[in-house]
Amino acid sequence: MAPWAALALGAGLLALLAGCTAAPETRLADRTQGEAALAKEKIVEQRRLSDKTIAELVPDQQPGCSAAVAVQGAVVWAGAAGLADLAAGTPVSTATRFDIASLSKQFTATAVLMLQRDGLLSLADPIGAYVDDLPAWSETVTLDQLVHQTSRIPDYWVELDEEGIGFNQPADQATTLDAIRREDELEPGAGFLYSNSNYVLLAEVVGRVSDQALPDFLAERIFAPLGLDMVLAPTLTGSGIALAYDDKLLLQVAGWTSYGHTGIITTPSELARWGDQYRAGDFIKKDYAVGAVNDGDGEQYAAGINIEADGDLSHTGRMGGYVSDFTVSADRATVIVVMCNGHLSNRFPIADALWAIWDPPRGT
User: Fold this and answer.
1) Residues 65 and 53 in one domain
2) Contact 267, 66 (CB under 8 A)
3) 77, 10: one domain
4) From CA 21, how far away is CA 246, in angstroms rounded?
């Protein structure tokens, strides 16, 4: 072969090889751009469907609801509808705050576990080591039983009711503790029995061990470090906080200000951001699931949170007219929160619809 022919052949082969190596890179870039475009189209559609859901399930002139969806700690959608104040006609917005009621329990449990990690207490300790003047059961009921709702201590509201202290009458933390102290007998039986008394007592443990009342402990050790706009302040009212309404749409003003079991004021978006801690693990460690007990309904009750049979984490809340729903997906990537200010609001249908949009069953 002539030298010039060999050179021509070599140049052709090089050109061919160059084309072969460039094509996959081009295809990869095209595919990446295509996937990004499809992902963008998907989230636009998910947001549209979410807006439609909350608009359809929350009447314009009724107590309202606000909801948020977060993926890996970033809020990807938030929406609201209905009224925060029926008399004034003030609408609920995504910035409207609510009392999250029993969703507060996971924060109290987290505070207790943080103190255990610090070596300042043990869940095996009896509650009597931290709270004075409790009945004889305080010598055997442990912090672990309080966290996991197996103490069998009666719920404090029963005693308050017997004393004639209704929901709209004043009852602070000290009054509530005294009501628990009058519960001489535990409920019969063994195992899980949900009682708000457990978490009122745990709030006192945090205060005794840390020398900070639980509201201050949470503000300094959890809310501020995570940049969360939250405050533990039961019955707090003011601009931007939804009023609560009962079944008859009558204003429901609470007088009970005890805490540990309820009382955190915040928005769905802030709580959805917090829910990423079950994935990120900065403040919620794996110990939250240690010792979880069967609640009798096929779920496990862990540290202020339910572990569902499918692996999701969840808890619901109600305090007067404030109702809420909180769920973390089994892979811990997605968090959906719904908060409403009417007892009969559609929190569960809203939550179910949002899950169908943002985390549909596999294969659909």
Assistant:
1) no
2) yes
3) no
4) 69
